[in-house]
Amino acid sequence: MSTPRSIRSFIPLLAFALALTASSADQPQWGQAWTRNQVSQERHLPESFDIETGRNVRWKARLGTESHSTPIVAGGRVYIGANNGEPRDPKHQGDRGVLMCFDEKSGAFLWQLVSPKMEDDPFLDWPKTGIASSVTVEGDRVYVVSNRGEVICLDARGLANGNDGPYISEARHMTLRGQPPLALGPSDADILWLFNMPAEVGIWNHDAAHSSILIQGDFLYVNTGTGVDNTHKKIRKPDAPSLIVLDKRTGKLIAKDDEHISPRIFHCTWSSPSFGKVGGRSVVFFAGGDGVVYGFEPVKPGAGREGPVALKRVFRFDPDPTGPKENVHFYNSNRREGPSNIYSFPVIDHDRLLFTSGGDLWWGKNEASLFCVRATGSGDVTGSAKIWSYPLVKHSLSSPAIHDGLVFIADCGRMVHCVDSRTGAACWSHEAKGDIWGSPLVADGKVYIGSRRGDFLIFAAAREKKLLFSTELDGPISATATAANGALYISTMFHLYALRVDHP
């Protein structure tokens, strides 16, 4: 039976529409779901733009005076952390941590979570840093770690639709200690539940929380951010966990690591967890503040009913086995030798893990490398799992983006690198104008990345170097670019930009 000509002519149009729909999606967490790979399937993204003329700029929104948070896009909203350098609400004055929510299409401000600073010691909550963590969104729930080390579950609609509870103390939460509660308004956040990590699991905040929460089933896996005190030579909370698991519905503590990492933390716990199936098993991978990559068996449904359980370790890899493991703070400010730590996500690529490791940016040795290791082994695989390593210029806060046989990575030696993912051989490198704190984003055949000097670069995602575009933005860039629903989001310390290809 033949297909009518009208239907035959419609089929290509339908296929094209379905292709567009399939290639457009929200970006509800930092990196790909679970694996953390910094690669997006978005298409038709800008190859260039002009902030001054507005070419390919959909909208821009003022943040504060510092923003280190990667923008997240879900459910028609865009979320990003900042400080209160440009107050959105006159009732909030002074230094605060702020999470802002904007309308995805227009950039209109919708609501904000405002959190007072921890007042006892600036090293607990570094001045002007704001909320540096990126949110993770699932449905109408938004999960974030505040500047005070709290894991908070928020209503995506804020208080505009009422205070849903069970948490109803938002007015007290956003008010400085010793002052009367501020009045709530429709542009304030609606907290559904809150888990205070310093009080509940005994962590010691340092500088700022840099967590991106991983959702796996009914559970949240959270980097606690525990670290040194203000002397940078003492661990005040040696029994604090580095990785905890909460029930996403209630905030109840379900599990925590039992690796006793805290005494070996050189500075802080920077890296957030990843999840994947490797070698036929499910594993949660996590890089501790001691510079070691751990793999844990995911908690099972029903775990923690009788109290928190210990995570079961199934994998351990130390990228710097000859580095100091005891009395690590003896090496503070030594740029030649000392322990390693890990800022980046462990990114899962089939049965391999890729991550950066090396000296601490502020206090440690300059040495840093990109590692590729087999993730299928069990137990301590330090001596057998390494596939290759690639030397970086110095210090890396960046997580790798793996695409089409290539790995893109950046470092604080101002370099962007392209490396063969199979062999670790260099393909090309490029010097930016400033140190790079964010990670490369690969999308639409392009690599997007910015530096702390404010230059933003776009390369072809190819084995041979091709710089497609570069420009100077209005301030330093700490975050990773985000692609979602046909748009590219770039944040500087001062503004969030939504970029989209202009159509005539």
Secondary-structure map:
Layout: H1 5-23, E1 39-40, E2 57-62, E3 72-74, E4 77-83, E5 96-103, E6 109-116, E7 136-138, E8 141-145, E9 150-155, H2 170-173, E10 191-196, H3 197-200, E11 214-216, E12 219-223, E13 243-247, E14 253-256, E15 274-278, E16 281-287, E17 293-296, E18 309-310, E19 313-317, E20 347-349, E21 352-358, E22 368-374, E23 379-380, E24 386-391, E25 401-403, E26 406-410, E27 415-420, E28 426-431, E29 441-443, E30 446-450, E31 455-460, E32 467-472, E33 482-484, E34 487-491, E35 495-499
Parallel strand pairs: 1-29, 14-18, 19-23
Antiparallel strand pairs: 2-35, 3-4, 4-5, 5-6, 7-8, 8-9, 9-10, 11-12, 12-13, 13-14, 15-16, 16-17, 17-19, 20-21, 21-22, 22-24, 25-26, 26-27, 27-28, 29-30, 30-31, 31-32, 33-34, 34-35
What can you tell me about this protein's structure?
The protein has 504 residues and is mostly beta strands. The chain has one domain (25-499): YVTN repeat-like/Quinoprotein amine dehydrogenase (Methylamine Dehydrogenase, Chain H, 7 Propeller), CATH 2.130.10.10. It is built from three helices and 35 strands. The chain has helices spanning 5-23, 170-173, 197-200, and strands at residues 39-40, 57-62, 72-74, 77-83, 96-103, 109-116, 136-138, 141-145, 150-155, 191-196, 214-216, 219-223, 243-247, 253-256, 274-278, 281-287, 293-296, 309-310, 313-317, 347-349, 352-358, 368-374, 379-380, 386-391, 401-403, 406-410, 415-420, 426-431, 441-443, 446-450, 455-460, 467-472, 482-484, 487-491, 495-499. The longest helix is centred in the first third of the chain and has 19 residues, at 5-23. It is globular, with a radius of gyration of 22 Å. Mean pLDDT is 94; it is low at 1-23.
